[in-house]
Amino acid sequence: MDTTIPAASPLVDIRAGFPLLSAHPERVYLDSAATSQRPQAVIDAETAFIRDSYAAVHRGSSIATGDATTAFEAARETVATFVGAAPAEIVWTENATDALNVVALGMSDASLGLGGDRFALEAGDEILITEAEHHANLIPWQRLVARTGATLRWVPVDEHGEWSIDDLAAAVGSRTRVVAFAHVSNVTGSIAPVADVAAIARRAGALTVLDACQSVPHQSIDFHALGVDFAAFSSHKMLGPTGIGALWGRTELLDELPPARTGGSTITTVTMEKTEFLPAPQRFEAGTQPVSQAVGFAAAADFLTELGHDAILEHEERMTELLVDAVVSTPGVTLVGPRPGRRRASLASFIVDGVHAHDVGQFLDDRGITVRTGHHCAQPLHRRLGVAATARASAYVYTTADDVEQLRLALAEVRAFFGADR
């Protein structure tokens, strides 16, 4: 198989812009689904803000505060544009996990009569998820049904870890209030038919909550066009800083959802008896804000926009093809998720016969290849697959064919090293 990146690819020399990759050319980084590397352009943008414009935002009337607030809100506008949204539809959160919790906790407060009647749940209501979900899109809903008496249901996966739209449609009923699911599975790489799910939920009068962590960094996204009601995504998976994520929601929903966290900067009026909250997004952003992180988040969005979604998709499809081939062509190594030839995101989880995933990861790490091992915060899915853990290799814009070839060569040695080929 041809393992070269076409010379015409705009991504062929991109690694030079990533300090860690430049500093360690011997290292193969195949763990971008966990966290991506940052380009110098993102580091420079955040550093320049800290050096030249750092101050509190939305507080006080000083020039410094005004300059910082302008940069902070400009970052919101940039990230909103990146996902086809209006700035008021983007709420800064700690990460995507926090964003999903904001929705679930808001619904919990609504169920206690603290506003947002359309979000209130009661006994007999149902929340529907899938068996493939990351814990961040499972545990908040478990807590919500425990508080409200509602029921948590899930769409089962098959032996490959995939669920079907037919099974999901059959599971949606008259008492379904929320359908929460991942756009892309962080374990299998399966890509959900988001618009179809949203349409099914809408017909039933249910809200859709999308975990978009593994899709926003890799493909052109327009949440309005997808038809969902809420979506969560994270900066650090798309070349940006840690410590910040985003919740997208339709304006009319965000303005009614009770804020999960309360305090300074979220209010219009406070008396000793009651509080009135600002419209979204400020109603959700209590306390000191991640200002420099937001600037870095926006710089990452600009960086990816400049690369172009078409170029990113073309490159990642090629890397995905190579990853899958590296796994399935190695005796004793089993691919998890969609079969070869079927569409998947740019990751490949796999099982090595006779060798625990953690040992596989250590073996690869000793050879300079960074992958993820474990249950990837998806224990129910791994339990359904009959394994405690898998190894996962994931590609991004800076991944090269040589990176994948080194993975292929190392995988061919794993079973022999541990004596599992006897």
Automatic annotation (TrEMBL):
<dbReference type="InterPro" id="IPR015422">
    <property type="entry name" value="PyrdxlP-dep_Trfase_small"/>
</dbReference>
<keyword id="KW-0663">Pyridoxal phosphate</keyword>
<keyword id="KW-0808">Transferase</keyword>
<dbReference type="InterPro" id="IPR000192">
    <property type="entry name" value="Aminotrans_V_dom"/>
</dbReference>
<dbReference type="InterPro" id="IPR015424">
    <property type="entry name" value="PyrdxlP-dep_Trfase"/>
</dbReference>
<dbReference type="InterPro" id="IPR015421">
    <property type="entry name" value="PyrdxlP-dep_Trfase_major"/>
</dbReference>
<dbReference type="InterPro" id="IPR010970">
    <property type="entry name" value="Cys_dSase_SufS"/>
</dbReference>
<dbReference type="Pfam" id="PF00266">
    <property type="entry name" value="Aminotran_5"/>
</dbReference>
<feature type="domain" description="Aminotransferase class V">
    <location>
        <begin position="28"/>
        <end position="407"/>
    </location>
</feature>
<comment type="function">
    <text>Catalyzes the removal of elemental sulfur and selenium atoms from L-cysteine, L-cystine, L-selenocysteine, and L-selenocystine to produce L-alanine.</text>
</comment>
<protein>
    <recommendedName>
        <fullName>Cysteine desulfurase</fullName>
        <ecNumber>2.8.1.7</ecNumber>
    </recommendedName>
</protein>
<comment type="similarity">
    <text>Belongs to the class-V pyridoxal-phosphate-dependent aminotransferase family. Csd subfamily.</text>
</comment>
<dbReference type="InterPro" id="IPR020578">
    <property type="entry name" value="Aminotrans_V_PyrdxlP_BS"/>
</dbReference>
